[in-house]
Amino acid sequence: MSKLSFRAALRGAACALALGALTGAATMPAQGTTFTWATANDILGLDPHANNHGVTNTMKENIYEPLVKRQPDGGVRPALAERWEQPNPTTWRFHLRRNVRFHGGEPFTAADVVMSAERVRQNDMAYTLQSVSAVRAVDDFTVEFETRGPNPILLQDLTLFFIMSKSWVEANNAMSVARAGQPGATSAFPQLNANGTGPYRVVERVADERTVLVPNAEYWGAAQINTGITRAVFRPIASAPTRLAALLSRELDVMYHVPLQNIPQVQQAQGVRLVTGPTARSIYFAFDVTRPESLDEPGKPNPLRDVRVRRAMYQAIDMGTITRVILRNSTVAAGLPVGSAIGGFVESLNQRLPFDPDAARRLLAEAGYPNGFRLTLNCPNNRYINDEAICQSAVAMLQRVGVQARLNAVPFGRHLQGGANNEYQFWMLGWTPGNFDMTNPARELLGEGSFNWGKFNDERMNELAREIGTISPQDPRRQQLAAEYWTRFRELLPMIPLHQEPQVFAVRDTVADFTLRVQEDLELRLVRMRGN
Length: 532
Fold this sequence. Notes:
3 domains, four-stranded antiparallel beta sheet, D-Maltodextrin-Binding Protein, domain 2, 21 strands, Dipeptide-binding Protein, domain 1, Dipeptide-binding Protein, domain 3
């Protein structure tokens, strides 16, 4: 992108760049107070207890609320719980906010928390209560959480535990939870309708076209919000050129992601600025290490069960070239599937294995594959920054060492469905730990969680993760155990870590203030329209 590196353009955690003028363009004021934004893929539904997916979780945060809420900088503050204490190491007592009502008018009480704790355990969001053995109401405005053992980071876990109305769920026969792709998911009542306590209400939902929200006039924290938004329209636009054209033609106030190759074009547009920063999302390739038979060559053993094959594939991928050419120096290659913002990150273990195609060929021969094998790399083509291009490059690199690789790139919703249905042996995924701690990917990606598509299981890593989860982040022993965990990870290589993804928003001058969140995506309360 010209002589100025993109990394220089991204310098700083949340830099905003004033952009140059485009001949003939004129600045126009905001039309009313409608705010419109777009990303590459749609939310997966409105059910707050289904679909652990970044864009979907962010939409939930506009509508539903947890007991405690994550701040843009990663900290935690009170939400539906005003305060809390720990009577003993395994009991947390939460004092609930009074005079809160759901969008349907129902009063919020402890019964809603207890029901939500039961309901959330059915689906992807169950990890939010992974350490909790019981939730009980002490009275209408006090609840206690009992954990199986000490969990010093319970508050971090609870930031995406959203509370639903018990009476609303019962009245609509909506206790069952179905994730996207499961039978009945698209027609399930909570996927199409919403009733939270949050600052915005859903007034229209058309899958793959738009989701429309308006402010909740009865919101308990309305005095603290000054967005100037009276109507918010979310539009999923899969095509990057179409999304960019919508921004430049003033159909959008904000777009995300800005394609890296289009940064110079956006820099010349009048009335637009870039808002950029780091994220906590790690991008990686993962293996099915348990399936006995190859999907690509039925009747033959699954070559990915051999760690020498996994190491060969890792060392065949030149992340230096991918970072420079595909990602335009906007990111740094990684050796761990968590970044520095995540509790349990170990800097000394974050170095990648060296790119070495000769070593890759030797390892393949040692493993009994001197002539390689057939393998499909399954990737999304509209979720992460240049996701399909990264996968195309990796396929070519694998082919050079003898792996007869091919690419299957599909829209993100279909990609998730295929993974959940056990259709993949080798795939790309990105992950932002919901609790900003390594215990989340240790469970969700490498343990019993629903995104461990390859069924990887190592008892020593599981033991370490359990122990780490009981130790305070301030205790040095926690970091020592994290180092042991990631050392074991690097020995077994159930994944090929790639990089931590940057976030790049384009924001029109109709928006006065736009606050980045380290957990990414857009939350409406952090937007302020010009003139407000």
